[in-house]
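Re: the 87-residue chain
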Amino acid sequence: MIEMSRQQADLAANKQVLSRALRADFDAGERLATMLRKGVTAHYGPRAEKLTAFGLQPLRSRPSNAPIVDPPAPEDAAPAGDLQPES
């Protein structure tokens, strides 16, 4: 019974060590991925459409805020208020 308790404690400690190592590797991978994304953006430029090949969004300009103009009403159509019922 005592041997099983020691083994359980050893396994719990080993789990903590492995979890820390896994987290450190994951953080290093995230840093590497960020560095690669920044490098690709620096190489091609922030506006290059080639960035989409690497899963990145290029910097695009905003659409203009030009006012929308309604088309003029046709002249030969009678306004709705001028309709007269036929008697």
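The two ends are 109 Å apart (CA to CA).
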